[in-house]
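ok trying this again, last paste got cut off
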Amino acid sequence: MSALQFEAEMRSVRAELDELLEGASEAALREAGAEGTWSSADVLAHFAGYTRGVADLLRAERHAHPQAPPYNAPPGLGDDDFNAIVVRFWRERPIEDLLREEREAFEALVDEVNALPADSLSAQGRFSFANGRSLDSILPAQGYRHYRDHLPAIRRVLR
């Protein structure tokens, strides 16, 4: 997978998400039941935390500072515990801030991937966080497939 292919897939899923969010009220976004007890806003918080996390891992590889909000999550947390912290963080903040952070996290991931040298995407072991795998083998699940996994839940609540 090239950076251009990754960006095309990401832009496609962004268009799907934006279509779902268009005109959605805060009440609709905060209505529980999209994913278990999570609301659509909680799913967006999950996207924001997860996507920003991947973008920040790529930033760290080039010794740049992370851009994630101050979730105050201890290192080494499992996914469920991290998700709980991120969702709780965003439940206490205005929906507009969440929507902005989710979009900025999305753009940050696309930008980080686009900034990589072309040969680094397929190089196994190039990125310490990838556990020996190539970035192009993990990016789909870390990016557009992750969004696509959760879009049906948002769609059920908002449409």
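PB: full thing came through this time. The chain has one domain: 3-158.
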